[in-house]
Amino acid sequence: MHRQITGRLVIATHNKGKLVEMRELLGLYGIEAVSAAELNLPEPEETGTTFAANARLKAEAAAQASGLPAFADDSGLVVDALEGAPGIYSARWAGEKKDFRHAMEKVEGMLRERDAFKPEQRKAHFVSVLAVAWPDGHVEEFEGRVDGTLVWPPRGEKGFGYDPMFLPDGFALTFGEMSRDEKHGLPPKGQGLSHRARAFLELAEACLARR
């Protein structure tokens, strides 16, 4: 039996881009969201070996520290030709300075080393696992995925992370070129296209009542 989310919720992230997306999604359901950064909660070390394990770890840490239900995402880019890299290390490839231009150049360099220039050789997907944890230890997890192709040079300055080099299947714009509504807006504003929006729709169906 799924548990309903009501009242105040902690968004267990210090990533400003993720925070904006999550707040917009939760706002549709009348949920008051406060970030881990605003509560001065420390960032736990991500020691999990899967997206789900890291999402759960972050949500549980925030729930225990705040005494409130907490919502965490762990997400990343999975590149077929790179045996699934960067995967759970997607953010770490950007380094302490969060330089995702450098991270994208690293991905592109590794693809070139493998002579992966054709679109069919540059297939990738984004994965997002959302975990909601309550202070009493109850946890629920939801996963979303979007498939696409990596392009070079990067296109667009919207979004964040690897968005400018990710062209979702069936679209002419990269995530970096799309507006927020086009990328992760929920119906009727958008199609719930992004991996995070798809995971959120699963979560919302189970745990949220739309106002």
Characterize this entry briefly.
The chain is an alpha/beta fold and 211 residues long. 28% of the residues lie in helices and 21% in strands. Strands 2-1-3-4-5-6 form a 6-stranded mixed sheet.
Note down, in words, how this protein is organized.
The protein is of the alpha/beta class and 211 residues long. It has a single domain (8-207), classed as Maf protein (Alpha-Beta Complex). It has five helices and six strands, in the order E-H-E-H-E-H-E-E-E-H-H. It has helices at residues 16-27, 51-66, 100-113, 180-184, 195-207; strands at 8-11, 32-35, 70-79, 123-133, 139-150, 166-168. The chain has a six-stranded mixed beta sheet with strand order 2-1-3-4-5-6. The longest helix has 16 residues, at 51-66. The protein is globular and about 50 Å long.
Task: Order the strands across the largest sheet as they lie in space.
Answer: 2-1-3-4-5-6
How do the helices and strands follow one another from N- to C-terminus?
EHEHEHEEEHH
The overall pLDDT average reads 92
Please bin the fraction of helical residues: 25-40%
Domain count: 1
What is the level 1 CATH name?
Alpha Beta
Number of strands: 6
CATH topology call? Maf protein
The rounded Rg comes to 17 Å
Key attributes of the depicted protein:
single chain, 211 residues, alpha/beta, 5 helices, 21% strand
Any chance you could write out the topology, listing elements then pairs?
Blueprint: E1 8-11, H1 16-27, E2 32-35, H2 51-66, E3 70-79, H3 100-113, E4 123-133, E5 139-150, E6 166-168, H4 180-184, H5 195-207
Parallel strand pairs: 1-2, 1-3
Antiparallel strand pairs: 3-4, 4-5, 5-6
